[in-house]
Amino acid sequence: MMRKFYNNYGGSIGAGFPGADAVGQFETKSTLGKRLVATGLIFSVLFAGCKKEQVVADETKLTVNRQSVANQALAEDEYFQMAVIPDTQYYMSEDSHDGKYYMFQDQITWIRANKTTSKISYVAHVGDIVDDGETDLNQWVKAKNEIYKLETDNIPYGLAVGNHDQTPFGDAGQGATNNGYGAYFGKSHFTGKSWYGGAYGSSDNNDNHYDKFTANGVNYLVLYIEFNEPGYTTDSDPTVRYRADITTDVSAWANGILATYPTYKAIIVSHSILKPSTSGNHQDYNAATNNAAGAFTPQGQQIYDLIAKNNANVFLMLCGHKTGEGFLKTNYNGHIIKTYLADFQGRPAGGNGNMRLMKFNKTQQTLGVRTFAPKSGPNILETDADSEFSDGLYN
What we know:
The protein has helices at residues 29-38, 42-46, 66-74, 89-93, 101-113, 138-152, 181-185, 187-190, 244-260, 298-306; strands spanning 4-5, 54-56, 63-65, 79-85, 120-125, 157-159, 196-199, 209-215, 218-225, 265-270, 274-275, 295-296, 314-319, 324-332, 335-343, 355-361, 366-373, 380-382, 389-392. The protein is α/β, with parallel strands linked by helices. Helix 5 (101-113) packs parallel to helix 6 (138-152).
């Protein structure tokens, strides 16, 4: 069963968003104290103002500077964090599933308030920014009004195009995003921003684009692929809207970008890549567990086969679309790629503002994932196995 905690840890993920340091602080004061006691260093911490002590081991006569070792033990791991925002469509529409716009506002407010304390270097939205494509452009105005605030704080970000961001839904053809996504998040809007790399094609279309940023001395590339699912139809229209020609052209472009930056650690973000181990729906939203691997969606399989597995710098893929949480680790001739699914739209309140924070720990070589819903009071934490976990950073 999923466990939710309504705690205020006063300096950890449980703290509300106004200026609170959140999710990234994995080690509490209690566990730190135990670790120091175990290494015989607690007195150096408690009496930091005293003079340095020289301790000589009886057998080895090895001199150890206790204060120096204590300082090393207290040294903070070198890491940064990425905020991941799943499907926000019901927060924009507010007309179904009880989603509310303030839930999206809380997400952006929390990210801005914790940029420095939680070392947030990048924000990725996995798509379905809005619910009704271009039939209700006010939803796009609401989205850009909040997302543009990240620019005020110079927080790099990117957004994937989901099926609900296109008109008609799921149509990757020309003009499907011109008046919504393209109007507010087109190529011309991002050109000149420090993190923006470029986009596929010569028009202002930004549906397939890439970003670059550097954190802890490591270069990262984030590649966005628009929704274009083989076999995709809607409940009201059996027309298959998949465009094979777009898959071919975009894949060639993506491979070219990844080949241009072979030393960059690459992350692929696309709306539909993975589905949970047990099919989620609006009633059974906690079906997936991190103990059972998910499976690629039709587009996810194409992205993996045509792009990801053949580029050694790709180590991570992120997605939404399918309600639930899922995880898949693939190994192609020693090339390991982790794929994470997070989509909470089918839960009560359209997802209730749940988002993720991913900790890229260079010191420990780990990738930590935590799930929470930021609130103006105590945040709502999730600690079940598919919501909070850790794995190797690049393997």
